[in-house]
Write a sequence for this structure.
């Protein structure tokens, strides 16, 4: 099946980016399993004028890439069915490579950025991704000059905050993952740590990082307890 380039549909003029919507006409493929992190990027992309498609795993991303070409790809390094670095390597060497290929992660930047760049990423977006100016700058600096808005552009000072419901959905998702014996508890612990960093929740981050680094044979009971406490607190609120 031929790949459709949705970043420049046939028979239609490409929208001209503006200073207010500098990514107008672009299509972003976000490969991210966290609903909360995805919602933040969705808001940033829409406010920048870009269309967005989301894949929650590598298999889903491959299905997307089989039907259209994304001009921009943002790939989380921790995915439920494989390492995001593998997908970045594939995209970096693809015949129709995204013009901007960015990695993102909830892990500490110092731990993963160099690996992402070595795999072929153009840049790295550390979570939380909430600044509109930083999001736009990280993408625009890798796009061809002719795809930039004309004239001077004031940097927006806006930030976005995802719907809190998406956070609860992520906690329920983590709970479901713990019931799947094929998913390592360490992956769930790292997922929760990334969620805590995305939410800027220092207490939650400390708890999840402690569990992720522990030598306990089975983390599932502690993780279930942590998730239950967090969900209970959100229901009370």
């Amino acid at each position: 099946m031929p790949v459709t380039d949705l970043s420049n549909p046939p028979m239609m003029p490409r929208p001209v980016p503006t200073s207010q919507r500098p990514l107008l006409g672009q299509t972003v493929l976000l490969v991210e399993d966290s609903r909360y992190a995805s919602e933040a990027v969705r808001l940033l992309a829409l406010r920048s004028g870009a269309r967005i498609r989301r894949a929650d795993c590598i298999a889903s991303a491959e299905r997307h890439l089989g039907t259209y070409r994304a001009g921009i790809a943002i790939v989380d390094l921790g995915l439920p069915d494989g390492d995001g670095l593998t997908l970045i390597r594939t995209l970096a060497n693809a015949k129709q490579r995204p013009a901007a290929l960015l990695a993102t992660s909830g892990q500490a930047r110092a731990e993963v950025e160099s690996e992402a760049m070595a795999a072929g990423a153009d840049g790295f977006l550390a979570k939380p991704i909430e600044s509109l100016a930083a999001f736009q700058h990280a993408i625009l600096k890798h796009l061809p000059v002719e795809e930039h808005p004309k004239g001077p552009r004031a940097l927006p000072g806006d930030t976005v905050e995802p719907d809190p419901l998406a956070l609860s959905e992520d906690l329920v998702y983590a709970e479901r993952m713990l019931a799947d014996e094929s998913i390592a508890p360490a992956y769930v612990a790292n997922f929760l740590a990334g969620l805590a960093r995305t939410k800027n929740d220092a207490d939650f981050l400390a708890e999840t990082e402690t569990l992720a680094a522990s030598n306990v044979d089975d983390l599932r009971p502690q993780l279930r307890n942590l998730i239950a406490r967090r969900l209970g607190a959100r229901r009370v609120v």
The mean pLDDT is 90. The beta strands are 27-31, 51-55, 72-76, 78-79, 82-83, 100-105, 123-126. Residues 220-236 form the longest helix (17 residues). The domain at 27-147 is CATH 3.40.50.2300 (Rossmann fold).
